[in-house]
Specification:
By secondary structure, the protein is α/β, with parallel strands linked by helices. It folds into three domains: about 100 residues, no CATH class; about 250 residues, Rossmann fold, CATH 3.40.50.1460; about 80 residues, no CATH class. About 35% of the residues lie in helices and about 15% in strands. The chain has eleven helices and 17 strands. The strands form four sheets. A seven-stranded mixed sheet has the order 10-9-8-11-15-16-17, sandwiched between helices. β8, α3 and β9 form a beta-alpha-beta unit. The longest helix is centred in the last third of the chain and has 25 residues. The relative contact order is 0.09.
């Protein structure tokens, strides 16, 4: 596109604004937004808008009509070209994407916004130091991988979403940073609508972005990253994939001229070697089109898929974050993006972890945009998502070892500092734990043929050896 060379004077802009508003019906005037591009559009300029190209018919003023404000793109919108002489509309063109997709300098200045939302930035409940999240030994597992994707036409909110995802994965769940691949915008932390100081810190707690961008969000980098991850995985590996930006009816947006189609995504999955678990979450418009292809072409033993909308709907956006993606990551994080407690406990079965299915159920219930979003879910084999977790699952040996360590510490304290009898409520809980220990010992005894008494004596002897060794030091 030619570089816009001349700014417009206010009188010319005002005539275009008046004519654009006059062309709206009363119903449309109550729901559509209008914004003028404050630069002259030159005849022959071409706007590349993902799924179509619009050629400017003559020198004109462009007014952009957003017909679904509040939704992610692509969604129905209209380009109104006005004569610079008298402001009359000389040409209209239907589209699914705004002009800043073609060129960030063409971002409209909105003058009619009946559904404008206030800046929905919550107060910070606490400035949370993500680096201090305790990493339990159970979480230490370098066999989990993640791929986080925006596009080269992403908005700030999309970048904020994947930063939230990055922090949750690395700090809450112990994913090694070297295993989390971020494909963001043009290879930097940036967006089409905000730049510079507006992208310097993350909205969640006002601290600098932490994610390390691996490369630009291109189709080639997506393919090569999947190949790289695939070469590092085995039958016990977990791969988490999240896409967060715009979508077209034909697929996931890459840039102003191309999309990744569900068929192309299927081919990428087909090219991977078999591995353990795949979890895919997609926020973009029409993302449900990827549900069945993901389940059909995944090379994982277990696959869970969730999206903000079905194949024929647009998803909701906000001034910060996308509502559905934010709810999904808040569920597994255990607190909101701003550090507040959740309104509801996502861990429905009370086992201390949130499964892929439980995360979806929470996001479905607590996605506060019910006008656009319509979350979709599927897994294969059917029902497996209830047993898929982003955390490493502790083994029985892990649990028993942890219990022994705790009771050995208690024993060491009792030797030095006898304590009074427990209060009644503690006594009930401790006696119940003895019943659990007895049941576990009986189960173990049935495996190797030894009696419970022998196991107890052996455990006590082993504990004594450890205690003596500790005293010797």
């Amino acid at each position: 596109m030619k570089d816009p060379r001349r700014k417009l004077n206010e009188h010319t802009l005002e005539r275009a604004r008046a004519n654009a508003f006059a062309a709206l019906t009363p119903d449309d005037a109550a729901t559509h937004h209008l914004g003028v591009v404050p630069r002259m559009m030159r005849k022959g300029d071409v706007l590349s808008l993902v799924d179509r190209r619009i050629e400017v018919p003559q020198d004109s003023i462009l007014v952009f009509e957003d017909q679904m404000p509040g939704a992610n793109f692509g969604h129905p919108c209209r380009y109104l070209f006005h004569s610079p002489a008298d402001g009359a509309i000389v040409h209209t063109a239907e589209a699914l994407f705004p002009p800043e997709v073609a060129d960030p300098r063409l971002r409209p200045e909105y003058f009619h916004e009946p559904l404008a939302m206030a800046e929905s930035r919550a107060s910070l409940y606490s400035r949370f130091d993500w680096s201090t999240v305790p990493q339990h030994p159970w979480l230490v597992d370098d066999n989990r991988f993640a791929l986080l994707f925006t596009s080269q036409i992403s908005n700030r909110r999309h970048v904020e979403d994947i930063e939230f995802a990055y922090r949750v994965l690395c700090h809450r769940f112990g994913f090694p940073a070297s295993n989390v691949y971020v494909l963001c915008f043009d290879g930097t932390i940036d967006s089409t609508d905000y730049h510079g100081p507006d992208m310097a810190t993350w909205v969640g707690d006002g601290t600098p972005y932490q994610m390390n961008v691996s490369s630009a969000a291109t189709k080639a980098s997506l393919q090569s990253t999947l190949t790289t991850i695939g070469g590092r995985m085995n039958a016990d590996s977990l791969l988490f994939v999240h896409t967060n930006n715009h979508g077209a009816p034909s697929g996931l947006c890459i840039d102003s001229t191309s999309v990744l189609t569900p068929a192309e995504w299927s081919t990428m999955l087909d090219g991977m070697d078999p591995f353990g678990t795949l979890v895919v979450t997609m926020e973009q418009c029409y993302s449900g089109a990827f549900l069945q292809p993901t389940l059909d072409h995944s090379r994982a033993d277990r696959t869970s898929f969730a999206s903000a909308v079905p194949a024929d709907k647009v998803s909701a956006g906000d001034s910060h974050f996308d509502q559905w993606a934010r709810a999904w990551f808040e569920s597994v994080n255990g607190s909101t993006a701003y550090g507040a407690s959740l309104a509801h406990q996502p861990d429905a079965n009370g086992n201390g972890r949130v499964s892929a299915r439980e995360a979806f159920d929470y996001s479905d219930a607590y996605d506060y945009d019910t006008y656009y979003d319509d979350p979709q879910y599927g897994d294969a084999p059917s029902g497996c998502g209830a047993g898929i977790y982003l955390t490493k699952a502790p083994t029985l040996a892990d649990i028993i070892r942890e219990l022994l360590d705790k009771y050995l510490a208690i024993e060491g304290h009792l030797i030095k500092h006898p304590i009074p009898d427990p209060p009644p409520d503690w006594a009930v809980r401790l006696l119940a734990s003895l019943d659990d220990a007895e049941a576990l010992a009986s189960r173990l005894a049935s495996v190797d043929g030894r009696g419970v008494g022998e196991l107890v004596e052996e455990s006590l002897a082993h504990a004594a050896e450890i205690a003596m060794a500790g005293h010797a030091k």
